């Protein structure tokens, strides 16, 4: 499992160029992945949403645009420089544009939140960076209300025929490009390693069940590169 202090330091180093790197390295398809997550959230008509490992806030902002003003959204992350980027984007949007959205620091392994507070918890591309996935998932379970929904958008293992091309891109092409964009090639070598070692859809679904969730479903996106897991407390 990743080391929390090392992960925090890594994201702090790349925070200012994180969004630009995401757009470039994914070819912009990361926006479509997030739109699928947001669409799933909207089906629940939630009043209180937690976006965990919110980073620079892309999912939280998408939720703020998609949900009614009465829905309250909390974006939480343990890396302050990433939250600084999110808050700068919120200020740039203008007063009142995201009045239903608040950013706060918080560790996914020990959430500073009360039990049974949220209707929906989302986490996008953050679960694989948790030092203890089971502990993080049980924390998400704890802060959800009974009947609340968890949505996990995360990299997965692609379909077999696509694996050689995909992992060649991850290992040989992506790090040098990311190094130019962010100035930190080592950070993207680490991120590539976490993608390669992350469980496939079935294995992650089992981990989610082991944390106490039920009705776990997994949807493959983009040849299995990414998966959207949905579960209920």
What is the overall shape? globular
Secondary structure tally, helices = 9
Physical arrangement of strands within the biggest beta sheet: 3-2-1-4-5-7-6
Helix content: 40-55%
Radius of gyration: 17 Å
* Strands, total number: 7
Task: Give, in order, the helices and strands.
Answer: HHHEHEHEEHEHHHEE
Unreliable residue runs: none
Distance between the termini: 25 Å
User: Overall mean pLDDT score?
Assistant: 95
The chain-level structural class is alpha/beta
Strand content: 15-25%
Main beta sheet: 7 strands, mixed
List keywords for this structure.
alpha/beta; globular; 233 residues
Brief account:
By secondary structure, the protein is of the alpha/beta class. Helix content is 47%, strand content 21%.
SSE topology sketch:
Elements: H1 4-14, H2 18-26, H3 29-42, E1 48-52, H4 58-66, E2 72-77, H5 80-92, E3 101-105, E4 118-124, H6 133-143, E5 144-155, H7 163-182, H8 185-197, H9 201-210, E6 214-221, E7 226-232
Parallel strand pairs: 1-2, 1-4, 2-3, 4-5
Antiparallel strand pairs: 5-7, 6-7
């Amino acid at each position: 499992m990743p080391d929390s202090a090392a992960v925090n330091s890594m994201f702090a180093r790349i925070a200012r160029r994180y969004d630009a790197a995401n757009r470039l390295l994914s070819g912009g398809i990361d926006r479509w992945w997030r739109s699928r997550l947001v669409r799933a959230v909207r089906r629940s008509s939630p009043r209180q949403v937690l976006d965990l490992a919110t980073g620079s806030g892309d999912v939280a902002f998408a939720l703020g645009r998609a949900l009614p003003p009465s829905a309250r959204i909390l974006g939480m992350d343990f890396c302050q420089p990433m939250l600084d980027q999110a808050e700068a984007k919120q200020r740039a949007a203008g007063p009142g544009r995201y009045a239903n959205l608040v950013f706060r620091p918080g560790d996914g392994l020990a959430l500073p939140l009360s039990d049974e507070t949220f209707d929906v918890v989302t986490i996008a591309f953050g679960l694989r960076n948790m030092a203890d996935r089971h502990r993080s998932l049980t924390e998400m379970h704890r802060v959800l209300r009974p009947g609340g929904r968890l949505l996990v958008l995360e990299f997965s293992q692609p379909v077999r025929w696509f694996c050689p091309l995909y992992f060649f891109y991850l290992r040989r092409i992506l790090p040098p490009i990311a190094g130019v964009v962010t100035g930190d090639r080592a950070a993207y070598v680490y991120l590539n390693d976490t993608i390669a070692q992350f469980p496939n859809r079935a294995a992650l679904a089992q981990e989610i069940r082991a944390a106490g969730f039920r009705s776990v479903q997994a949807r493959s996106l983009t040849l299995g590169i990414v998966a959207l897991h949905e579960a209920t407390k």
